[in-house]
Design goal:
13 helices, four-stranded antiparallel β-sheet, 31% helix, alpha+beta
Length: 551
């Protein structure tokens, strides 16, 4: 205290010390004015003097007490936040202590229970946190926010009481609300609203049922209380629920949601633009008939649907909408018999006229369909399990391979392609694409900015496939080169034949070597090569030689 008075005499007080002395001097001056007024008689004069002396004494005491505490940068005694003692800590020390204490409740999943079902809620999933800074600052300002008398009174009284500061819980209430529907839907005894789904031409409506749903307000309070409790517990929260009734099936609303008008394909040529056709969908019965169906007390109802077809389909758009030939490729099948020729012509006709909008994926199997006698296909030679056999649809791989080569030269994106087991004679090695119903499929994607049209024809035992579209500024000329890179030698196997004499042999199947190949796609612009890409490395099996011999 002597040091403070010394600094006062030498005018070297700190700003805070000077403030306290100024407050004291102002109070003393007020009492000096009162003392210099006209004296009163008797006891009143004595009382006034005593009050003045007492006021001066209190003021001096307050000033001295405040100056003694002026450099204290720590929180007062007996102050807690959420039950955590932060007495005699600096603001930063208090924040650190609280944050360490709160880690457990912010990183431990809250377990919620309904019946025998458990649900986990990570506090971080709702951005849970605490406003530690506000609470610590509030604690620090105790004994510092008023005038000199008020501050001293708070400092002294705090020594005799305990103060717990409220800690504000913060979280994303919208994120919490978004978890409620998921719980409601998963309750075994929960309310189930009517639903519907479409599969093929059937609309299936599920009636739903009455059941329990989460009482959000009560659950929110339970979560708040859990996170704000002085003593944190990992015990489960029993989810509060209320019984709720399901909505009635609204058949008109369902009809309005699924009904779709068919859309005709359209195109313009200046500028070139195509809008694809779209099929529509509707009830196969009237809405009134559908209402009568759901009037029955059943868990599910099935309503038949019908497809509404456009008058102008995308595939029927005229050739004038596809002004540019992007690529063409031809293969010859002059050595094919009548059945194989029939299959090639039929498969070619099925893909002819196909239009693919930008982003569409073409499936050969999906377009040609299952190869059956009823669909017009005949038995012809085909490779099956390493052998040449007669199969319905034999020969259509020549069409898929021709299409593959045309698509490559149009620089379209190959999605799925598989080489044959054995080499074929109608395209170069490494340039074939085998297909099989239920097996390999040839798929490609229209990766251009404009629609493309496939024109596939057969003439004089040639199959020709052209790709038409609209040329783009960044188009390149495409060259496809394939090379045989190795040989897969055939093996010879023997089988006994009792019809042959001892030492006699007969070749049942002649052997031929298999091969390995590599195929490149080369892009050229203005005659200059700008890229060279390996698009496949293929292996073709040998035909093993089979020799019969006598015993």
């Amino acid at each position: 205290m002597n040091a403070i008075l010394y600094r006062k005499q030498n005018n070297v007080l700190t700003e805070e010390e000077a403030k306290y002395f100024k407050q004291a001097e102002d109070i003393i001056k007020e009492y000096e004015k009162e003392k210099n007024k006209k004296p009163k008689k008797g006891a009143s004069r004595i009382s006034t003097v005593i009050l003045i002396i007492l006021a001066i004494a209190i003021t001096l005491f307050c000033t001295i007490f405040a100056l003694l505490n002026i450099n204290n940068q720590k929180i007062l005694k007996n102050i807690t936040i959420l039950g955590v003692d932060i007495s005699n800590l600096t603001v930063e020390e208090a924040k650190e202590k609280l944050n360490i204490y709160l880690v457990e409740r912010l990183t431990t999943e809250i377990i919620m229970k309904h019946g025998d079902e458990n649900y986990m809620l990570p506090p971080r999933s709702i951005d849970a946190g605490f406003d530690v800074e506000r609470a610590v600052n509030q604690a620090y300002m105790i004994g510092r926010s008023g005038n000199i008398i008020q501050n001293n009174f708070e400092i002294l009284s705090q020594k005799l009481k305990k103060t717990d500061i409220n800690l504000k819980l913060i979280y994303n209430e919208m994120a919490l609300k978004e978890t409620i529907p998921h719980m409601n839907e998963s309750f075994k005894d929960g309310k189930k609203e009517p639903t519907y789904n479409i599969e093929g031409n059937d609309l299936t409506i599920t009636a739903g049922k009455d059941g329990y749903v989460v009482n959000y307000d009560e659950l929110k309070n339970l979560i708040d209380n859990k996170l704000m409790s002085h003593k944190y517990s990992t015990e489960q929260i029993e989810i509060p629920v209320i019984m709720a009734k399901r909505e009635e099936i609204n058949i008109e609303k369902i009809h309005n949601e699924i009904y779709k008008e068919p859309q005709d394909a359209t195109y313009t040529t200046n500028p070139y633009k195509i809008t694809a056709s779209q099929n529509g969908i509707d009830f196969a019965i009237s809405v009134e008939e559908a209402k009568n169906q759901i009037a029955e007390n059943k868990e599910t109802y099935t309503i038949k649907l019908k497809t509404l077809y456009p008058k102008v389909t995308t595939d029927s758009i005229g050739a004038e909408a596809f002004p540019d030939l992007l690529a063409t490729y031809t293969t010859n099948y002059s050595s094919s018999n009548a059945n194989r020729s029939n299959n090639i012509a039929l498969a070619t006709a099925k893909i002819n006229g196909t239009v693919l909008m930008p982003g569409d994926v073409f499936s050969y199997n999906g377009t040609v369909g299952k190869r059956t006698v009823s669909a017009g296909f005949r038995e012809a030679g085909a490779y099956v399990n390493g052998k040449t056999v007669n199969e319905v649809g034999g020969g259509i791989c020549q069409v898929s391979s021709t299409l593959y080569n045309s698509v490559l030269r149009a620089n379209l994106e190959i999605v799925s392609r598989t080489n044959h087991m054995f080499t074929v004679g109608y395209v170069p090695i490494g340039a074939d694409a085998t297909v099989s119903w239920g097996g390999p499929d040839f798929k490609f994607k229209n990766n251009r900015n404009y629609a493309i049209r496939i024109v596939a024809t057969t003439h004089n035992k040639n199959v020709t496939i052209k790709v038409y579209g609209l040329k783009q500024e960044n188009d390149c000329n495409v060259e496809i080169l394939s090379y045989r890179t190795g040989t897969v030698p055939y093996k010879t196997t023997y089988t006994n034949d009792n019809s042959l004499g001892a030492g006699q042999t007969k070749v049942i199947q002649a052997g031929s070597n298999g091969a390995r190949s590599v195929t490149y796609k080369i892009l050229k612009k203005d005659g200059k090569e700008i890229s060279r890409e390996v698009i496949s490395r293929d292996t073709y099996s040998p035909h093993n030689q089979i020799i019969a011999r006598g015993n």
